[in-house]
Amino acid sequence: MKKKLSLFVELDAPTLAALAGRFDIFPFGKGGEDKEKIVGEDELFDQLSSVKPEVAVIEQEPVTPRVVDAAVPELKLVACVRAAPNNVDLAACRERGVMVTNAPGRNAVAVVEMTIGFMICLARFIPQTHHEIMSRRLTLPPGTPVNREDILWQHGDLKQNPYIMYRGVEIDGRTLGMVGLGIIGRMLAPKAKALGMRVLVHDPYVDAETAAAAGAEKVEFDDLLRQADFVSLHAKVTPETRGMIGRREFELMKPDAYFINTARGALVKRDELVRVLRERRIAGAALDVFDQEPLYDDSPLLELDNVVMTPHIGGATRDGIRHQSRLILFNVMAWLDGRTPPNLVNPSAK
After folding, report:
1. Rounded CA gap, 203 and 210, in Å?
2. CA–CA separation, 167 and 205 (whole Å)
3. Looking at residues 72-101, what average pLDDT do you find?
4. Which positions are catalytic?
5. CATH class of the domain at 108-125+169-309
């Protein structure tokens, strides 16, 4: 008799076929027809208490003590497709003998490429100039005579043409300072070097040899801030790192440096970031994460012209489904075969 698996995430066809050979699958939310739906606590409680699966595959669904109690004693494994399963009460699972696995690196490539894209956008004013064209600030009324031999956009109402107004910098020869050298940092460093950048890293848990193997030079935190042309965060939120970037840290950065955050909004003191951007104390920032998501309509960040923002989509690629499917399959099949799952985050629950 097959075991039961409740599925709340999207997986690729080969993985679904492999799981279907060993489990009866009960799809909900993003695991079913509604690919955009995140199941809330009450619905998760109802579904798990009804199905009583041995395995639940989740992403952002809140696995609270109440939810775990709804599925035990049948529930044995919660397989989360996130690197940091913050939505899972690990203590409650451990106390009830439920193993929890994560999926480290499932969106690492996506975040690395997003960071590189942010650097290029900041250096070359790509979002700002796109907006200028789309808002018709750089266009002319139909029928206006133009010099078609001139390759530069000119506009009589502007003091300067865009070629001068949006003169950016090249990232070749610039210095990237990475705060954190986990999976993402180790993938980003060689790609940045391939673009001609010098790469610095600060990570108290990584030695100089490990940093060098990734193509980076390990430095002290303050030295990184002083030297980097692009400061990019790739750290986890811990009691030590929460709010780690504030007034003092921004004051150490170069006036023409850029700040990038694709990690977590809680790492940064938002008001201090807004202040330095308003005062042009640094050249600009690119943000995919915020301390409050979504932003409120009155967020001061929306008033700035030297910040590029995206709505926490750094890890969102179609390829990510393939990556998370592979990791889920490894973890679930290991458990099913009586082996320790490779990405077990609460070993004492075995």
Report:
1. 11
2. 39
3. 95
4. 264, 293, 312
5. alpha beta
